[in-house]
Amino acid sequence: MRYLILEDGSIYAGEGFGSDRETSGEVVFTTGMTGYQEAITDQSYADQILVFTNPLIGNYGITLADYESLEPRIKGVICHQVARRPDSWRMQTTLPKFLKQLNIPGIQGIDTRELVRKLRVHGTLRGKIANSKNDAEKIAKILQTKKITQGVISRVSTKSPYPVPGSKRNIVVIDFGIKHSILRELAERDCNCIVLPYTATTEEVLELHPDGVLLSNGPGDPEEMKDAVKMVQEVEKYVPLFGICMGHQVFALANGAKTYKMKFGHRGFNHPVREIATGNIGFTSQNHGYAVDGDSIDKDNLMITHVEVNDGTVEGLRHKKYPAFSVQFHPDATPGPHDEDSLFDDFMSMIDQRKEEERHA
């Protein structure tokens, strides 16, 4: 048996799979029905124990093509059932073997409906995956005293710049914990990319003479990104900019807005988002525990372009003076609906328009 012990003293028993090690982290849930590999390898889940609401995962195995990062920092996986006989022509290994190789523990057999209901009512809780429940009361007290991990982006961002070659627009990508699918979307548009660490300065960005700058997704508290905020405040004046997820929050902070920690966040591939200008609703892939405070937005600098249909969360922003915009959701959407992947084309058009203006200046 293996146990999930929560800070409120709750204990959930199940069967272990993957790694045998014990671990602790923030317990969160995703509503996605597919895409377990992409979720597990998404660096935005760093230091978190992920609960899958879909009753069955692992049914199509694991394939190299679906990695979102090669060294995921997720702390653990919770599900109701792992498929006993996965099958797919793309499969290269099974989910339990994959987790064991990455030293990530998992538990199956838990009533995930009851667990997710608790998280929705009480909010995100810290938990520990343990091999014994003997010290459960002591563990719960320790979990109550632990703070949310700081500096997590420093562990998931690249340590040194690297290229993703292309022949058209030159894009500098700031890596807060980037999903490979974002780079794939840029590669499909034949962009020549240079990926920089989250610590990149204004000078380091501009000396590469980018046509555009993309701020990636990533884990943790956006208000820790003070140096990145300062960089964006300068770079947006000179270069078209596009922020995604954490990049959206950093863009908002750079323009005077504030962010806050959500009760249980948005994680999954079925979140409806309304574009304010057209009224169109697109279903989106999301993974964030923080959001932009709509009441804090400086209306002289920013306009809200998208909102979440269910709770009114700010999902998109555009600068009123500079060619810069951002979205809280993932237009790259792997997995998930591709309703909003045209935003990458909008970014390309913004870059081309800026270059045309400079050519005639």
TrEMBL record:
Pfam families assigned to the protein according to its UniProt record, in alphabetical order: CPSase_sm_chain, GATase
Keyword line: Amino-acid biosynthesis, Arginine biosynthesis, ATP-binding, Glutamine amidotransferase, Ligase, Nucleotide-binding, Pyrimidine biosynthesis
Domain Carbamoyl-phosphate synthase small subunit N-terminal: 1-130
Binding-site list for L-glutamine: 44, 218, 220, 246, 249, 287, 289-290
GO molecular function annotation: ATP binding; carbamoyl-phosphate synthase (glutamine-hydrolyzing) activity; glutaminase activity
Reactions performed catalytically: hydrogencarbonate + L-glutamine + 2 ATP + H2O = carbamoyl phosphate + L-glutamate + 2 ADP + phosphate + 2 H(+); L-glutamine + H2O = L-glutamate + NH4(+)
Pathway(s) served: Amino-acid biosynthesis; L-arginine biosynthesis; carbamoyl phosphate from bicarbonate: step 1/1; Pyrimidine metabolism; UMP biosynthesis via de novo pathway; (S)-dihydroorotate from bicarbonate: step 1/3
Function: Small subunit of the glutamine-dependent carbamoyl phosphate synthetase (CPSase). CPSase catalyzes the formation of carbamoyl phosphate from the ammonia moiety of glutamine, carbonate, and phosphate donated by ATP, constituting the first step of 2 biosynthetic pathways, one leading to arginine and/or urea and the other to pyrimidine nucleotides. The small subunit (glutamine amidotransferase) binds and cleaves glutamine to supply the large subunit with the substrate ammonia.
HAMAP family documented for this protein: CPSase_S_chain
NCBIfam families per record: CPSaseIIsmall, PRK12838.1
Similarity remark: Belongs to the CarA family.
Name of the molecule in the record: Carbamoyl phosphate synthase small chain
Species name: Lactobacillus acidophilus (strain ATCC 700396 / NCK56 / N2 / NCFM)
Lineage: Bacteria, Bacillati, Bacillota, Bacilli, Lactobacillales
